[in-house]
Amino acid sequence: MTWQPTDCHAHSRHSDGALTVADVIARAASLGVRPSISDHVSGDAPTTVDSLPAIDEYLTDLEHFDVLRGGEFCWHDPLWRQLPDATTRRFTHRLGSLHAIRLADGSWFRAFNPVLPRGLTAAEYMEAHVSSLETLAAEMPVDILAHPTLVPPPLREMDPETLWTEALEERAVTALRTAGTAFEISSRYVPHERLVRRMIDAGVRIALGSDGHSREQVANIVTPLATARRLGVADADLYDPAAHGSRTGFYRQKD
After folding, report:
1. What is the distance between the alpha carbons of residues 42 and 81, in angstroms, rounded to a whole number?
2. Would the pTM of this model clear 0.85, i.e. be above it?
3. Residue 175 class from Cβ within 10 Å (0-12 exposed, 13-18 middle, 19+ buried)?
4. For residue 117, what are the domain limits?
5. Residue 146 covered by a domain
6. Which of 241, 249, 236 is nearest to 2 (CA)?
């Protein structure tokens, strides 16, 4: 069988995507990409998959299709902690996201907020971001950290190699390597090459994710795939739950 890249992270109308499940699959097929549906599963996100009964309905619908059954869980939302084992095993893979981080004062701050809290510096925000990443990796049994470099809009204008110090990068690498969690190269929130290279050199598994919501975005993983190849990642080593296992238990977890 010819190898196909896997889009481990795409959205449908079950959450905030524009396409039906069938349309996501068709779009991926047209681009030569193996699709997944990885809608938001959270009580605090734009989604219909916001409760245990809704999760069962979501998975039952996806089981009618030949598609990987993912879910993007918010670390700050407690729903992921409530899943029965039998429900977890119905997912082929799961993603964890830092849609909100815990600041030093214990409060939560959303990554899409257009304005930083008064007096909070970029360095203080990044310290909180990486501290939250470390906690997510240690306690959240997910297969992929989605869009690891997602930060609020004011910080997206900064040079990422200044925003992310090498010490912060090393902490992120150690957290994901220790947890066995893959690092997503996102099409929407593109990570800077120094961080990706550091992950690869440390042996952290790399996943491809369009984070697609629109037809143009879904399964468009040209840039993430090109980045992985340029940095020396073999196609067969890119995260594929069927090939490398999953912490959900649907696929046997592999070394």
Report:
1. 11
2. yes
3. buried
4. 21-244
5. yes
6. 236
